[in-house]
Amino acid sequence: MQKRQLIVLVAICMGFVTMSFGQHTRYKIKNGFGIYGGITQYDIITDNFNTKKGNGWQAGASATVDIPHKWYNVSYTIQLSENHIGIAARPLPISLSEEFVDYKIFTAQIALLMHVKLIDSFLTIDVGPMIQYNGDMEMDDKKYENYIINNYNNLLAKDLNDISNFNIDGAIGASAGFGFFRLKAQYIYGFTNMLNKLNDSDLDLTGNDKKIKGNQSMFAFTAMITF
Fold first, then answer.
1. Which CATH number covers residue 53?
2. Considering 2, 17, 123, 150, which has the largest number of Cβ atoms within 10 A of its Cβ?
3. CA distance 164 to 215
4. pTM exceeds 0.90, yes or no
């Protein structure tokens, strides 16, 4: 259900993306459209849990305003991704062994990016804010749902499902290419505490009384085709 909601959100937003050409005084401003896809590496920076980075995928669309007489371009991007992360847990309250329980998180992100031209439009530094809607953390394998999360006495793996769904991110990266093809590398950091909702879930946090806090950390490597 959450995955369908994310797809619907992206589809609605893409309805506002168009391709056109405009004229500004003596300069021709070109509005372009691109689609892209690639891989992600995902983590949550937190002192509460021991995490392991996971891989995923990303796909998106971008509407770019190419301003030839300025040192920057501007784009609006919409992207959808499925990300994975591991959190350390143990099968018994007293156990020497531990395993990383795998979770997946679907995200939909809308960003306004500035592209600083290093070599005209062939090589740019990309930076800007991002609004994110993400689903809950879903366990990849339900057989681990009663594992106990490391650093806690009674907190179960299944208890980490309900996280904050709306977050604010910042993105920085670089893109390079010629003609209709570009390669992009991007780092996305979550400014908001995406685990904050767990503090309101009446969980048994015996063994670690710190407030639960975590910030998203994502790398994305994609290839784009422009029109």
1. 2.40.160.20
2. 150
3. 11
4. no
Tokens of 164: 């904050």
Q: CA-to-CA distance for 123 and 190, rounded, in angstroms?
A: 26
What's the number of CA atoms in the CB half-sphere (13 Å) around residue 70? 14
Asked if the structure places residue 78 within a domain, the reply is yes
The token pair at 90 is 């143990």
In a domain, 214, yes or no: yes
Number of CB atoms found within 10 A of residue 34's CB: 22
Per the structure, how many domains does the chain have?
1
The predicted pLDDT at position 103 comes to 98
Domain interval for residue 156: 2-14+32-226
* Contact present, 164 and 195 (Cβ < 8 Å): yes
Q: How far is CA 43 from CA 35, 87, 138, in A?
A: 25, 10, 15
